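Lay summary

Proteins are chains of building blocks that fold into shapes. Our project writes down both the chain and a compact code for its shape. Here are two examples, one after the other.
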Amino acid sequence: MAFLLDSNIIIYSYLNEFDFLRKLIIDQSCMVSEISRIEVLGYHALKKEEDKYFQDVFAYVPILLPNQNIFNQAINLRKKYNLKLGDSLIGATALVYNLNIYTRNTADFERIKDLKVFNPII
């Protein structure tokens, strides 16, 4: 099944100790939310080599743009589960596109009934 990578998995994949996560990035079933691209590339202290790596990731992986259905679903998730804005948009993207979500922060999403959440780091 196709899956959505959360921002933290993309960030961890840069580190040598988590290089096994790079296999997820090159998997043809992998997608990311535009929100993750903003979260990762918008970090104010990003080093030049990190920026290059993440730019390459986002140039390779299909990026799902938020649409009205995602925004509406995100509103519902924020209200129901008191999620942060980014998490509600990423969770909504996974729900709208019927994707599993891969994240290290499973607690952010595990309360969402119809969302399958996996931690690839354990």
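And here is the second example, written the same way.
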Amino acid sequence: MTEPMPAPLRLRRATLSLITLLGGVSLAVIPAATVSISSRLFTVDEQGFLAVAVLVATFVGQLTFAIVVESRLSSAATERRVVFPLWLAAVSILTAFVLAIVPPNALALAIGLPILIAALEVGRGVSVAERLDRREIAASVAVGLGALVGVLAGFAGQTWALIPLVVGIAAATIVRSLPVTHRPSRPEPAVMGWVVADTAITGVIYPLLNAMILTFLGSADAVLFTSIATVSGLLAIPLNFMRLRLLKEHSRLDIAVSAASVLAAVAALLVLELVGAFGFIFGPAWTESATIVPLLLACAWRAASLATTIPFAALRRAGEVRLLTGLRAAVSALTFVFAAAGLALDDLAAVFLGLLVAELASAVVYEVARRRRLARTIREAADADAGAGAGADA
């Protein structure tokens, strides 16, 4: 049995975990900062195009993360070690350099965003999973400062507002690609295939849904959907942190820190909405719409992932990749049906309500699967013990 961790060490680890968790704000603000800056630099139609591009970039980032990080963390037969690939860092830095020197261009930004966000997703994922906390704090500060300066420049009407944003991303990428002492584990090919498949099945829903919103409801609603999804995405920071840590090992401490952070984040978002901060950041797309109900539903949808993540991570640690892919396919279909039903009502609040109902149903599905898996493991262990006992008696 593992000896309990001394109290000072537990406190230090919890403090570093909390700081690293808070550093995830830097990743979440990139889509928000992009939408905010775009509202000052581009036309309404270009903003609608970029709103979809932001979600597509997020999807590409999730796929890259699944290939580079999550497939290794899910390969139970290996040591499950991960590193930040230098090729991805180089491509990201080159992309940031190009976007910094060319004049503001919506198409160039849409092409570059998937590369930049993929590097951010993978870099942060590696730092969190391997507990490279000090390195991650420095990288998060670089991204956050770049986004802040870029947004402020956008408020001032400066055409160079995108430059600090991409420079901050490049600086964080350099920090996260510094050498480490361990080597990456080689993922099991079958595991990688299943992990990438279920990530693709799940992630494609949101850019597809926003493309439908752009088509049927127009650019303003597409921008608003991305804005609300991005704002509520701040809740995904502790959830993703918890998911990464739980993929390595179960930790009640990390669950408690993450749950408390979700509650604090919801309260902070509501205060910012009531004081008008989001209207100031996102401009007419936010101020000309009723946003409090959609925002509340979006926050509830994100927070419901607490109940989904714990059984999901337990199944991943157990190596149940095939089972999870089947479950994710069913859950994704359910999510799309509920969200599309909300879209049919021409109401963004109904879309987020559909996402919330689907997330709650998903939590039940994953928990039932986890309990069945646990019961099977206990039964197999009991049968093995009984067989061993019979052999000894003989």
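What can we say about the second shape? The CA atoms of residues 178 and 392 lie 55 Å apart.
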